[in-house]
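User: quick one, sequence for these tokens?
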């Protein structure tokens, strides 16, 4: 579990698993490295489970629904299940994040008027 691998439909984005098996409400997790201009997926997507992005180096931009949110080093952002999203490094320096995938039941639902 030491090697970082490319992620399909992402660019300049590699990751490695955070742990071998799911842990309760955690479905999975990964350490990720994002080159300048890297991120993804190429087209924003949505799914039932939530993501918790924790930035450990640099700054990333999370596109969530119709809004851009800046997440800096040592900050985090919870993307609720159902939210349209993608994550990008728009800076000139590399960024690193820990991404946790959480059961859908861990986050409030997105209102249906979005």
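Assistant:
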């Amino acid at each position: 579990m030491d090697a970082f691998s490319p992620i399909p439909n992402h660019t300049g984005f590699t990751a490695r698993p955070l742990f071998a098996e799911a842990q309760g409400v955690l479905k999975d997790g990964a350490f990720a490295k994002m080159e300048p201009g890297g991120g993804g997926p190429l087209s924003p997507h949505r799914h039932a489970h939530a993501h918790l992005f924790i930035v450990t180096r640099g700054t990333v931009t999370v596109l969530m629904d119709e809004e851009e949110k800046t997440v800096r080093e040592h900050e985090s952002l919870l993307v609720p299940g159902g939210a349209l999203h993608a994550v990008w490094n728009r800076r000139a320096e590399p960024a690193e994040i820990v991404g946790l995938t959480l059961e859908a039941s861990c986050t409030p639902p997105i209102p249906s008027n979005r």
